[in-house]
Amino acid sequence: MLFLSTVFTGVERVDRKRKRPTTDQPSARPIKRFFGAEPVKVISIPSIAAIYNEQINAVDQGDQRRAYWSPDRRVRRGSWKALAWDFLLEIALINSFILQLKGQPQWKPIKSQADWRQHIVDSLIAKYQPDSQSRQRFHTRDEFTPVTLHN
């Protein structure tokens, strides 16, 4: 997670190694003059730019994870609300997966997103299933119900 607007004042700087550009474009000439004969140089850059460059793939990785597991269902009524709900649910699932993976959970971290989602479903069912009222009229263990009434 990256909070660029609230962390930096804009005056912080950090030293980073940078390579001299290899292009012959006219726009690269001032940079090439700055590097001179050195192929690599340590340059002081704003901290916000350094952090952004280090974290730039985080959004892409989140989008990839969401694309692997997004629900493939058509939304017919209230489409924008349903799409917003699906999007927010996916983001919550992916963020919780990443947090448990990189955090300090009290259990062994779950490495795959499929296993994490199954863990969440199993936990929710274990928590709320005993209190739920079944909508089924007959259970399979009901031996007194005639066979013709079973679905």
Summary tags:
single chain; 151 residues; mainly alpha
CA-based gyration radius:
27 Å
How confident is the prediction overall: mean pLDDT?
A: 78
Helix content: 40-55%
Q: Encode the helix/strand succession as letters.
A: HEHEHHHH
Number of strands: 2
What is the rounded distance between the termini? 49 Å
Regions with little confidence, pLDDT below 50 for 5+ residues: none
Protein structure class: mainly alpha
Q: Taking strands numbered 1, 2, ... along the chain, how are they ordered across the largest sheet?
A: 1-2
Q: Please give the count of helices.
A: 6
Q: Mind describing the biggest β-sheet?
A: 2 strands, antiparallel
Could you say which overall geometry the principal axes of the C-alpha atoms support?
elongated
Percent strand = 5-15%
